[in-house]
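Retry 2 of 3 after timeout on previous attempt. Resubmitting C-alpha cells to design endpoint.
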C-alpha cells in the first residue's frame, strides 16, 4: 500500500527558501519529487500540509497542491486497476509525464535488481545482475528499449554467447532471465505485448545436454576415503560433499547457513531455503563424524561450517560469500575427482543426484525419494533419476542379444531333465 503526502523539506535551497515536495512511500522505500514550489517556514502549515494565510495567494497555491495530490492518487488508482505492481520510478515517470515506452531496458532491469536485493532475494538479484551485464556486453546500446529487442537480436545474442564458450544450458539460463524481465515489463505497462519476441524465439530449444550426474555408491566411498592428511586443503570440500550426500542431498546454501542449534540429539532439523519445507533428518555415522570434526574446531560463529565467518552479515554479503566459496568448492571437487579416479563431472549438485539415484538403485520407490528430498512434484524427482532409468532400459534392451530359448524348452525342458 502506497502513502502520499506533501511536505516542506528541512534543507533550504540556494534562495534560502524551503522546497515543497511530494513524498511517496511504498514497501518501506521513499521517493521525493520536487513540485517547483517553495516558501519560508513561517508560510507553511505542517498539520494541514498547505500554505497558511501569511503566504500571498495562499488559496490559489493550495488549490494547485490539492490538484497535484489528486493527480498522484489517480496514477496509483490506475496502476491498481491495471494490476500493476509499480515501482517508485514508474510512479515518478507517470507523475512527471514521461512515457512508459521511453523507459530503457537498463533502467528497468537495474530497478528490478534493487527491488530483489531489498526483498532479500539476493540469489535472484545476482542472477539478474550477471545476465544484465552479459546482455549489455553484447548489445553495447545502453539506451535500448524493450520494443527494440527482436527475434533477430536474440538470435545474434545466442550466437555471441556460443562464441564465448557457452553451451545450450548456459545460454538457456541467460535467455530465461531476459524473458522474465520482458514479461515483468509487459505486466507493468512498460512495453506492449505485441513486441514480445519470445513467442517466436523459443527458449525451450536450449536444453542442456545431459551427462551422468550421479556417482555410484563405490565412487562416493572413494571420496569418503580421501586421505585428509595428504590433502588438507581439500578437507572442507570432502566434508561438504559427504555431508550433503548423507543428509538427503542438502544443498550448499543450506549447509552454509546450518547452525549448531539445528542439531538436536541425533537429528538435524532445518527449513530448506529454496522451498521452505521443514526437514528432520537422522544423523548417520559419516555425518556424525563430520559434525564432531567441526565441533572441535570451535568456530566464533553459530554456524556448523566455516563458510560464513560473521553472524551479522547482510543478505548481500552472504550472497557474495556464497558465490566465492561455492566456486572454490566446485574447483576443489574437480581436484578430488582427479585424485581418487572419478571420471565424471563433479560439482556440489552431484551429491544430491547421487543420493536420489543410489536410493533408487537400492529399490526405494520414487515417491519415497521425492518425499525425502522435499520435492513438491514427483516429476522433479523423475528428472533426477532419468539417467538411472535410461540405464535400466539399456540393460533390458541388451537382453535382445541373448540366445533365444525355444518355447518347447521353456515348457517341457524341466520335465525331461527330471
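Retry 2 succeeded. Sequence:
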Amino acid at each position: 500500500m502506497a502513502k502520499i503526502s506533501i511536505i516542506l523539506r528541512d534543507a533550504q535551497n540556494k534562495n534560502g527558501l524551503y522546497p515543497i515536495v511530494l513524498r511517496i512511500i511504498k514497501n518501506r522505500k521513499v521517493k521525493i519529487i520536487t513540485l517547483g514550489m517553495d516558501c519560508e517556514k513561517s508560510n507553511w502549515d505542517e498539520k494541514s500540509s498547505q500554505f497558511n494565510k501569511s503566504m500571498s495567494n495562499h488559496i490559489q497555491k493550495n488549490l494547485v497542491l490539492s490538484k497535484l495530490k489528486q493527480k498522484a492518487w489517480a496514477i496509483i488508482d490506475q496502476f491498481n486497476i491495471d494490476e500493476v505492481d509499480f515501482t517508485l520510478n514508474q510512479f515518478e515517470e507517470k507523475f512527471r509525464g514521461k512515457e512508459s515506452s521511453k523507459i530503457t531496458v537498463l533502467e528497468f532491469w537495474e530497478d528490478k535488481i534493487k527491488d530483489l536485493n531489498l526483498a532479500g532475494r539476493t540469489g535472484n538479484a545476482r542472477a539478474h545482475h550477471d545476465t544484465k551485464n552479459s546482455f549489455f556486453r553484447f548489445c553495447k546500446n545502453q539506451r535500448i528499449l524493450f520494443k527494440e529487442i527482436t527475434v533477430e537480436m536474440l538470435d545474434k545474442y545466442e550466437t555471441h554467447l556460443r562464441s564465448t564458450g557457452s553451451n545450450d544450458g548456459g545460454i538457456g539460463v541467460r535467455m530465461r532471465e531476459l524473458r522474465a524481465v520482458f514479461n515483468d515489463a509487459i505486466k507493468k505497462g512498460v512495453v506492449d505485448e505485441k513486441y514480445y519476441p519470445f513467442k517466436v524465439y523459443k527458449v525451450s530449444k536450449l536444453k542442456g545436454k545431459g551427462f551422468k550426474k550421479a556417482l555410484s555408491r563405490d565412487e562416493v566411498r572413494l571420496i569418503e576415503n580421501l586421505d585428509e592428511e595428504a590433502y588438507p586443503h581439500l578437507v572442507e570440500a570432502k566434508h561438504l560433499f559427504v555431508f550433503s550426500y548423507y543428509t538427503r542431498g542438502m544443498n550448499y546454501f543450506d549447509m552454509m547457513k546450518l547452525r549448531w542449534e539445528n542439531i538436536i540429539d541425533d537429528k538435524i532439523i532445518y527449513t530448506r531455503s529454496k522451498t521452505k519445507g521443514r526437514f528432520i533428518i537422522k544423523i548417520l555415522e559419516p555425518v556424525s563424524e563430520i559434525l564432531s570434526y567441526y565441533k572441535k574446531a570451535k568456530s566464533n560463529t553459530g554456524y556448523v561450517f566455516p563458510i560464513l565467518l560473521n553472524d551479522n552479515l547482510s543478505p548481500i554479503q552472504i550472497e557474495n560469500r556464497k558465490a566465492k566459496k561455492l566456486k572454490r568448492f566446485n574447483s576443489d571437487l574437480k581436484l578430488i575427482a582427479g585424485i581418487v579416479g572419478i571420471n565424471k563431472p563433479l560439482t556440489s549438485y552431484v551429491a544430491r543426484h547421487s543420493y536420489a539415484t543410489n536410493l533408487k538403485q537400492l529399490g526405494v520407490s520414487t515417491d519415497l525419494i521425492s518425499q525425502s528430498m522435499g520435492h513438491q512434484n514427483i516429476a522433479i524427482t523423475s528428472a533426477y533419476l532419468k539417467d538411472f532409468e535410461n540405464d535400466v532400459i539399456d540393460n533390458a534392451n541388451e537382453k535382445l542379444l541373448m540366445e533365444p530359448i525355444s518355447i518347447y524348452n521353456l515348457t517341457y525342458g524341466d520335465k525331461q531333465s527330471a
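Attempt log closed. The chain has a mean pLDDT of 86.
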